[in-house]
Amino acid sequence: MRKPRAALGSRAAELLLDEARGEGHTHVQEVFEPTLVVRESSMVFRDREGAQ
User: Fold this and answer.
1) What is the DSSP string of 2-29?
2) Tens digit of pLDDT for each residue in 33-51?
3) Cβ(46)–Cβ(52) under 8 Å?
4) Cβ-count burial of 30 within 10 angstroms (0-12 exposed, 13-18 middle, 19+ buried)?
Protein backbone atom coordinates (compact mmCIF):
# COMPACT_ATOMS: atom_id res chain seq x y z
CA MET A 1 0.00 0.00 0.00
CA ARG A 2 1.21 3.47 -0.83
CA LYS A 3 -0.02 6.37 1.28
CA PRO A 4 -0.15 9.94 -0.05
CA ARG A 5 2.58 11.19 2.31
CA ALA A 6 2.82 14.71 0.87
CA ALA A 7 -0.93 15.24 1.21
CA LEU A 8 -0.92 13.79 4.73
CA GLY A 9 1.92 16.04 5.85
CA SER A 10 0.48 19.13 4.24
CA ARG A 11 -2.95 18.64 5.79
CA ALA A 12 -1.44 17.86 9.20
CA ALA A 13 0.55 21.12 9.07
CA GLU A 14 -2.56 23.10 8.07
CA LEU A 15 -4.56 21.66 10.96
CA LEU A 16 -1.74 22.28 13.44
CA LEU A 17 -1.30 25.90 12.34
CA ASP A 18 -5.06 26.54 12.47
CA GLU A 19 -5.17 25.20 16.01
CA ALA A 20 -2.13 27.25 17.06
CA ARG A 21 -3.70 30.44 15.65
CA GLY A 22 -7.01 29.71 17.32
CA GLU A 23 -8.87 30.21 14.03
CA GLY A 24 -12.05 28.37 14.92
CA HIS A 25 -10.28 25.04 14.80
CA THR A 26 -12.45 21.96 15.07
CA HIS A 27 -11.13 18.42 15.24
CA VAL A 28 -11.80 16.50 12.04
CA GLN A 29 -11.07 13.02 10.83
CA GLU A 30 -9.42 13.11 7.43
CA VAL A 31 -9.50 10.07 5.14
CA PHE A 32 -6.82 9.62 2.51
CA GLU A 33 -7.16 6.80 0.00
CA PRO A 34 -4.13 4.53 -0.25
CA THR A 35 -2.99 3.04 -3.55
CA LEU A 36 -2.37 -0.66 -3.98
CA VAL A 37 1.13 -1.31 -5.26
CA VAL A 38 1.80 -4.77 -6.69
CA ARG A 39 5.45 -5.67 -6.42
CA GLU A 40 7.42 -8.71 -7.46
CA SER A 41 7.55 -9.91 -3.84
CA SER A 42 3.73 -10.02 -3.68
CA MET A 43 3.35 -12.19 -6.78
CA VAL A 44 2.62 -15.91 -6.68
CA PHE A 45 5.14 -18.00 -8.56
CA ARG A 46 4.08 -21.24 -10.22
CA ASP A 47 6.28 -24.07 -11.34
CA ARG A 48 6.16 -25.44 -14.88
CA GLU A 49 3.27 -27.79 -14.08
CA GLY A 50 1.13 -24.93 -12.76
CA ALA A 51 1.37 -25.81 -9.06
CA GLN A 52 2.06 -23.13 -6.51
Assistant:
1) B--HHHHHHHHHHHHHHHHHTSS-----
2) 888 888 877 776 656 665 5
3) yes
4) exposed
